[in-house]
Amino acid sequence: MTTTNIPLITTVLKSRLGIARDDKSSISKNQFYVSEQSIDFILENPQDFVIGPLKGSLDLCNYVNSKIQVKHMLELNCFQGELSSIFAYKLNPNVLNVVERFASRPKTDTINDDESIFKHNWENVKHNFYLRSKQHPCIVLHECDEVTAISKLQDDSLDFIYLGSNTKPEKVKELILACLPKLRSGGIIAGAEWGTSDTVSSVTGILSNVDAYFEDGSWVKKVNKAKLEATTQKLKNIQNSRIGIGVHEQFFATDTDIKFLSMLDNPVKVYLTGFLDFTEYLKKDSEQRGFKIKRIVEINCYQGETTSLMAKFLNPEELTVIDQFDKVDPSWPKNIALEDIRYNFKLRTKPYPYVKVIDDVDALEAVDRFEDNSIDMIYINEYASYQYCWRLLAQWLPKVRTDGYICGWHWGSGNIVQACLDHFGEPDIFFKDSSWSKIKVWDNE
Questions:
Q1: β-strands 318-322, 295-299: how paired?
Q2: Cα(295)–Cα(299) distance, rounded to whole angstroms?
Q3: How far is CA 60 from CA 55, 90, 194, 215, 430, in A?
Q4: Angle at 147 (CA atoms; ends 221, 182), nearest 5 degrees
Q5: From residue 280, how far is each of 137, 277, 287, 429 by CA, in Å?
Q6: CA–CA separation, 410 vs 412, rounded Å?
Q7: Poorest-pLDDT segment among 106-115, 191-200, 308-317, 433-442
Q8: Which pLDDT score, from 0 to 100, does residue 111 have?
Q9: Is residue 415 within 8 Å of 383, Cβ to Cβ?
Q10: pLDDT value at residue 335
């Protein structure tokens, strides 16, 4: 079928994906353009098009329109703007925020067909998005990662949120938890790929169930935020956090958040419950040995997640953190501004006045500010090079008093493991979050 046979849907004449490119090219079977005429044409010619994606999208819009009026909305992972243009046309919002990085994503085993976005040139995808979106002035593009885009939006400001496809299954919960504070009560959250076991378990794990699902794989849920908060104890105890809520490895040292996060089935639960097991071990072991953990040093605190948990559960007299917040390890997520890391650390540790910060020098230089045998416990959040880990241990071990605790994170990393083995052998115990502990049973030489 050539474009001469279907003049009603050649509104995007300069597409770069072989779609209505000239009068000899065919139209890809899962690409559609938005006008009443073109929609009717596609639906009336099922022999020439795969109509499920279009029909399902239209049914989703009709469902949403029957429930609420959409003035402000958000679509994550808009790709070429097919759904964006349908949302703009059918929902007619004042503002349609769309998010797309227009950059390669890691390929997953769940998406490997010929039409996969992983096979496309992202410059062409961006080109086609602009061809579609220029017809709809309500569309506002956020060319960044999802979490950064979500953080820019005000709480309770959105009527409708759509989580686009090709999102890693393990990230679905993270994005839902980040989006929920932005959705007004009575608003609707929806997404793609209903029917895959990962999506179903991720969505129902937070929202309990969905209200409907459609032929294109979309699902939809109208959210009663008061009811949801009562059943899930929404993670919003740090009101002014600049990262959003429920982001990977984020947990807050409050009883309600700890209870909620401990029920989740995702990496956050592993990190949190593993670290809680670690603090429980320290409490019990120190009590049995009559050893009081009064003075703790933590090397590299990031945003203060572990700092706040140690402060809450170990209740030391002094907890000194050594971290140069403007020199974060490059392996950390790029979607968090350096000033926000420091800001969020302050929010988390504000309830604990005995938390002190050394940020003018790194841990190798700060060691001279502590006397030998003056620390009851050290926790090393470090998994850099073997040489650096070895130097940290060499310089800080004398500062820990005999019978004190040498602890850290990332047991399993070859660098920290080898450095520990070279200094004192295996730790006494390690935990599922990769924390580890060793009692210093030797005196300084």
A1: parallel
A2: 13
A3: 9, 10, 13, 9, 49
A4: 45
A5: 56, 5, 11, 12
A6: 6
A7: 106-115
A8: 36
A9: yes
A10: 53
* Residue 265 banded pLDDT, cuts 50, 70, 90: low
Pairwise CA distance, residues 309 & 348, whole Å: 9
Mean pLDDT of the chain: 79
Using an 8 Å Cβ cutoff, are 229 and 206 in contact?
no
Residue 11: per-residue pLDDT: 41
Please give the full DSSP string across 169-185, using - where no structure is assigned: HHHHHHHHHHHGGGEEE
Report how far residue 254's alpha carbon sits from residue 269's, in angstroms, rounded to the nearest whole number: 15
20 contacts 27 by C-beta, under 8 angstroms: yes
Q: % helix / strand / coil in the chain, to the nearest 5?
A: 40, 15, 45
Write down the pLDDT at residue 106: 47
Query: 72: which strand partners?
Result: 95
Report yes or no: 169 and 110 within 8 Å, Cβ to Cβ. Answer: yes
**Maximum CA pair distance of the chain?**
88
Q: Which residue has the tokens 């807050």?
A: 252
Closest CA to 214 of 192, 232, 199: 192
Taken in order of first residue, the domains within the chain and their CATH numbers are: 50-232 (3.40.50.150), 255-439 (3.40.50.150)
- Residue 144 makes CB contacts below 8 A (sequence gap 6+) with 99, 101, 335
Instruction: Enter the tokens of residue 400.
Output: 């820990």
Helices (H), 34-167: 36-43, 52-67, 82-90, 122-133, 146-151
The amino acid occupying position 436 is W
Angle, helices 386-396/414-423, rounded to nearest 10 degrees: 40
Taking the C-alpha atoms of residue 183 and residue 156, their distance in angstroms, rounded to an integer, is: 5
Question: Contact 256/263 with Cβ under 8 angstroms?
Answer: no
Beta-sheet strands, E only, within 91-157: 95-99, 139-142
